[in-house]
Amino acid sequence: MSGSFTESFADDGKLLLCVAENGHSFEFQCSETTSVESVMRFVESVSGIALSDQLLLSLDMKLEPQKLLSAFGLPASDREVFVFNKAMLQSNSHPPSPEDVDLQDVADALPPASLHEHHPLDDASDPALKALPLYERQFRYHFHKGRTIYNCTVVKHENCERLTREQKVQQRAVEVATRNLEQYYRVIYQNFLEFMKRYKHQHRLHSDLLMNFGRDIEKLRSAKIHPYLLTESRKCLLDFVKEDNLKKAVENCASSHRQFENKIAQFQQMFVEVKRKVEELFACRASLSMKNLEVTVKDHERFIDEEKSIMQSLSKDVNTVKKLVDDCMSSQVSSSLRPHDAVSALGPMYEVHDKNHLPKMQACYNSISELLDFCKNKKNEMNNFVHGYMQKITYVTYIIKDAKLQFPVFREAMVRQDDLFADLKLVRGVGPAYRACLAEVVRRKASMKLYMGMAGQLAEKLAMKRETEVRKREEFLKTHGPFVPRDVLASMGLYDTPTQCDVNVAPYDTSLLNIEISDVDRYAPEFLVGLHSKIASLKSSLTMSGDSSLSAEPEEIGIDTFDKDNFDDILAASELIEIAGTSKMEVENAKLKADLASAISRICSLGPQFEYEVLDESEVENVLKNAADKTAEALQAKDEYEKHLLLMLKEKQMHCDSYEKRIRELEQRLSDEYLQGQRHNNKDVSGLNLMHEKVSEYKAEASSDVEGNKTHVSGSEPMDEVSCVSNLTSKQPCKAREGMDENMVDSSQVLSQPLDSSMLESQQNNEKGGKDSEAGEMGVFLSNSSTAESPQKSLDDNVATGRGLDAKDSGDIILELRNELMEKSNKLSEMESKLNGAMEEVSNLSRELETNQKLLEESQMNCAHLENCLHEAREEAQTHLCAADRRASQYTALRASAVKMRGLFERFRSSVCAGSGIADFADSLRTLAQALANSVNENEDDGTTEFRKCIRVLADKVSFLSKHREELLEKCQNLEATSEQTRKDLEEKKELVKTLYTKHQLGKQANKEKISFGRLEVHEIAAFVLNQAGHYEAINRNCPNYYLSSESEALFTDHLPSRPTYIVGQIVHIERQIVKLPSQLSASASPEAGKTHHLCSDQGSRTLASSSISTSTSATTTSNPYGLSSGCEYFIVTIAMLPDTAIHQQAS
């Protein structure tokens, strides 16, 4: 283990531990499977911080003792673990002790100057030679002194670096603790903001309920219910609630509302104070900076470098003088070396040492010493700062935790407030609920109609499937039937046919109230919902924006579909599915009614929760801003589309003008051709006039069709606009052939678009017939793209071809042209009449569809918005419901447990109170424990199990105490009898003591300091000798068998390396015993047998020697340690050490 911090610490399997209070660092060899508790025990061993006082933090995580290091991503090369001492975080903890750096001074570390050591050159006759050893000794002393100064300087600089590192560790520890507090405070403050948000929502709702209670009552009183629902007790909506109990409820709610508001104000003030203290704590951390100190320590390294260079110079000079001395000693005989030159060269070197090198090194040492003092002061300041800062963090954490503990109380109070305002919410919810019920009736009726229609559609689809299957079977029989006999096909079952499928829907919802969507506003006006004015304005804004965006939507679709190739497919895909038995309009109306009723029901179900929770000030502004942006975008798109339509109309007008000009040219050419043909055939004059009239009529009709199409393009029907514009811009104009230009082709496309597919097919057949008759002669390609294009092409082709014919054939050509023109004109008239009728019908349907579509889109927009709000409200309601269910289940479990525990305590109380004695109490407890053990249930909770265990343990202990009490009573009786007998014996002995006291005292005074070799008595000095059996036996002339007790033997011999041959001590106790016969060892002793009388002398009193001996009439131990014969009497003597222990401490 290392106690230093390494900047490049990146070794695997090592954990860096930093102590915050002093900055010390330790490396701990560990792995991912090492427990945190092992780390804490290591910290306790190296830092002295108790295991229970340690708090370990790494980044923002607190290390828990029962977990492994892998749970916290440790060990890691870039992670440190900071250890905080909980004992030092308390407010009453002692401040840290000043930093103490115990270093040896230079004066103490200098070696003694060996100037008087004898050298061979000291006896030389030449003074110069005598001076060389003196210089050598001085140079060596300078070198040793310089090395001592250098070593002390390096040690002090290392201590400066160590103190700087420790301060950096403490700085990081402060940052970690601050981040931990900041994270904790951020979580608690976020909880406070969320709590205040819920409280403000509840406060606004409850305030509105109290303020508008009278208005809500009047609304309910003025709202009459449907005639079908009228009874004698219910005439208006106010009859749905009990009006008499509401006034008292309003007063209670108002009082509770004000009290709760005051409590919340105090709670807010508490958090303001918490925030202020946290900000003050974070502000005082700004004064913590280590940059200047690090720069200073780094700058002082130059003194170390300077001393190092001086030491190199001193070492070089020592080597030089040593070489000179060695050379002089080796060249004494030859006298070739001149010592005077050497001495003259060493003098200046000595001056440099004494006046330059050594003072400079001393100055560097003094600078480093001052730096060390400065670092010590900074370290002490850091210790005090960390101590105070961590105490402030502890205090702030305490007040934050105190505020956190109040959250459950206030949340419970909010729940009680909601329960208290339940009656007022009931009054507010009657109107919306009634309106929602009526809307639900309308929705169900519309849904039933759609359901019936879908059943009819299903029946039609199945019938079509059946017809398809029948056709497939008939085709199969036609194909393969002639080759297989009919009886074989019948046997194979191939003549069967699918059965008809009947779709039947049983009637339902027959008891619904007979109302329509208009009756909802009649019997339940919108004011019953009671939307706030702010919400009403928002609703109007959303409606306006919805109308604008929806009205612009078809136009945008029209612009986007200009480049499509098949408008008919898009139109078919956008239409509603046809339902059997109903029209599109009926289905659309039914859907609109169902959607509108559903939207009304959802609006009513949202109620004031949507008003006060979802739409606060900022959100209302955002919604209004978004609506305004969408409205502006829709208006801009509408303006652009209007410009686009105007440009299209202008372009089509130019096409029409070109078309009219082309018709006039054709008339002129036709007139010219007619004049040429008149010269050859005068009889065709009437036919030519008729043809001229048809051409004029065709011109007028074409012009009217163009105008009609122009009107159709500029109309107000969105779908018609899309149809017209997409056809005008999507189809590519055909190239004009045989004298026909592009303008006519484009104009013909305008005329051809309104035609349906059946008319186009008939027209194509007619055109194909015309082509067959004329293609061989003229080779003209006729396009079949439209009805109006064919006659013009034919006319133009025939005229162009006629230029190359002679006058003989002109009459036949004119006749053919006339016939074809008359035929096409008749078809064009029919198609025009059909087109006008269809256009009128489409125009009417389009106007109705546009109105319904706008209403539907508005409803869909509102419903989409309300669905989002409903989803949010439903999520919160689900959360509250889950919380309520959980609390209800917890309450039920706690109540059941409390009832069960109440029953158990009643049984315990009856058991305790039953009986009047201890035995009865023990028996009742034992009976109760047995009954509880027999009534074990698998589903019982832990509390019941613990109670049963406690009762069983209590019963066992009470039974044990009862038995023990009986035994103690019996022993007390025996002790009382023994005490009485002892008292009588003491009375007798007292008399004996009084008579012998004087004699005994005199004899004792005479023999006090003498070793007794006769009869041994208490307080006499006795000598014991080690016999062959290994026992200490007293030296006694008259009375043998006195043996030293084992306790006394241990007292005298335990501290000696071997057992002494004798022991001398003062007798403090003598016990008399008799070796019994083997038959007597089994005899039982009475309670009074074995009683030993100990008579010890008190201070200042005298006791007789005879009374100090203990008598024993009972059997001794079964063993015979001293090898005596049966019935022999022996004594066990206990002695104490004498003040002068020299006599018995000598070993043999």
Question: What distinguishing features does this structure have?
Answer:
Ubiquitin-like (UB roll), single chain, mainly alpha, 1148 residues
Provide a descriptive summary of the structure in words:
The structure is a single chain. The protein has helices at 36-47, 86-89, 106-109, 127-211, 213-222, 246-284, 291-299, 301-330, 339-404, 407-420, 422-480, 486-491, 517-523, 533-560, 567-574, 584-614, 617-680, 685-713, 718-730, 742-752, 757-778, 789-802, 810-913, 918-934, 942-1006, 1046-1053, and strands at 14-19, 25-29, 54-58, 61-62, 80-85, 1021-1026, 1032-1034, 1042-1044, 1062-1074, 1109-1110, 1129-1136. Among the domains are: 1-89, Phosphatidylinositol 3-kinase Catalytic Subunit, Chain A, domain 1 (Ubiquitin-like (UB roll), Roll); 426-471 and 498-625, no CATH class; 655-882; 1007-1143, no CATH class. 66% of the residues lie in helices and 5% in strands. A hairpin with a 2-residue loop joins strand 3 (54-58) and strand 4 (61-62). Strands 6, 7, 8, 9, 10 and 11 form a six-stranded mixed β-sheet that branches. Helix 14 (533-560) runs parallel beside helix 17 (617-680). The chain is mainly α and 1148 residues long. The protein is built from 26 helices and eleven strands.
Short account of what is shown:
By secondary structure, the protein is mainly alpha-helical. It has 26 helices and eleven strands.
Element layout with pairings:
Blueprint (H helix, E strand, L loop, with lengths): L13 E6 L5 E5 L6 H12 L6 E5 L2 E2 L17 E6 H4 L16 H4 L17 H85 L1 H10 L23 H39 L6 H9 L1 H30 L8 H66 L2 H14 L1 H59 L5 H6 L25 H7 L9 H28 L6 H8 L9 H31 L2 H64 L4 H29 L4 H13 L11 H11 L4 H22 L10 H14 L7 H104 L4 H17 L7 H65 L14 E6 L5 E3 L7 E3 L1 H8 L8 E13 L34 E2 L18 E8 L12
Parallel strand pairs: 1-5, 8-11, 9-10
Antiparallel strand pairs: 1-2, 3-4, 3-5, 6-7, 6-9, 9-11
